[in-house]
Amino acid sequence: MPSVLITGGAGFIGVNTAIQFLKAGWRVTILDNLSRKGTENNLHWLQSEHQDVPFHKVDIRDNEKLSSVVKATRPDMIIHLAAQVAVTTSYIDPREDFEINALGSFNVMEAVRLYSPETFVLYASTNKVYGGMESIPVILGEDGYKFTKLPNGVSEEQPLDFHSPYGCSKGVADQYTIDYARIYGLSTCTFRQSCIYGIRQFGIEDQGWVAWFSIAAMLGKKITLYGDGWQTRDVLNVQDLAQAYNSAWVNRDRVSGHAFNIGGGPSNTLCLRDLLSFLERELSVTISPEYGESRPGDQPVFICDVSKAKELLNWEPKINVDRGVKELIQWVSENRELFSETVK
Q1: Which residue of the set 123, 130, 166, 176 is catalytic?
Q2: What is the β-pairing status of strands 232-237 and 195-197?
Q3: How many domains does the chain have?
Q4: Is-catalytic flag, 145?
Q5: Residue 144 pLDDT > 70, yes or no?
Q6: 3-state secondary structure of 27
Q7: Beta carbons within 8 Å of 24's beta carbon, 6+ residues apart
Q8: Is the dihedral of CA 44, 45, 48, 54 positive or negative?
């Protein structure tokens, strides 16, 4: 029975991934500092479903405690999700952003190198490592911004251009993950993830926009669009993402040292305004968003080219946007009480 250690495992991606791996017969261990709203609830839910899931309350900045967990568990795989996840927060406190995303991830890699070198490490990076991509031509169409010359989206050949403290800190960890495969012979892989959404996501205004809009629309909270609202992203359901993690494990020998753009791809895109219109129809509500200035580093459009993942991981998204958002709306509707403290 293979084993996996999930850092940030009480987050919404973490618990969804844990459930899928448990169903597949894995032994799962969760590591999280429970600093993000909703994580304690997620952990309680996970352990109510699977009482035998070990949990370690550890901050990845604490190298000694992190190393002791890695040394004790020596997992077959680490899915490294623990992170500071909001671009806006990184502007406010770039030092903390660096310490969590860059130094914390370095601690993970060093713990594996020193105490569990056979472990396969999968790092959850971000499309923000490509920066604003100002040189890529973009047009505004009827349903949002589009690339004029990238019909399949952005590939891994796009030059890296770290933009914002968040982009820099995640980019550092992205490159360390790849380099530890080259220099130390570890088995590693990095996923440059696009917008991930799904059930058990306690979205907030600064991060997790699909969930945040869904929650706010249902609860009648204020929604602000920063910029013109035509910003477009490919979105990926968290269940599809967990399948991609498993595919990386299955193909670990040939993907080590590689980076993959992982998202919904050209067939699963949303612009902000389209999501609000969808929510109005599904919830029978009227949404009148406020508008604010564009945020620094906010790309008008980002869509992943997932061709490399299809080729080397034998993976592609299965859950379309309509189905995925409807499932998210239903989960929010059935769990309104969970948002009494997480949504103000």
Answers
A1: 166
A2: parallel
A3: 1
A4: no
A5: yes
A6: strand
A7: 246
A8: negative
Closest CA to 265 of 228, 302, 239: 302
Read off the pLDDT of residues 220-269 as tens digits, 9 standing for 90 and up. Answer: 999 999 999 999 999 999 999 999 999 999 999 999 999 999 999 999 99
pLDDT, tens digit, for every residue of 272-305?
Answer: 999 999 999 999 999 999 999 887 767 899 999 9
**Structure tokens given for 209:** 């926009």
Verdict on whether the full-model pTM lies above 0.90: yes
DSSP secondary structure of 111-146? HHHHH-TT-EEEEEEEGGGGTT-TTS-EEEETTEEE
**Cα-based distances in Å from 330 to 58, 147, 204, 228:** 32, 33, 18, 28
Domain span at 40 = 3-342
Total Cβ atoms within 10 A of residue 52: 8
DSSP class per residue in 218-275? HHT---EEESSS--EEEEEEHHHHHHHHHHHHHTHHHHTTEEEEES--TTSEEEHHHH
Burial 237-275 (b: 16+ CB within 10 A, else e): bbbbbbbbbbbbbebbeebbbbbbbbbbbbebbbbbbbb
Give the CATH number, domain containing residue 117. Answer: 3.40.50.720
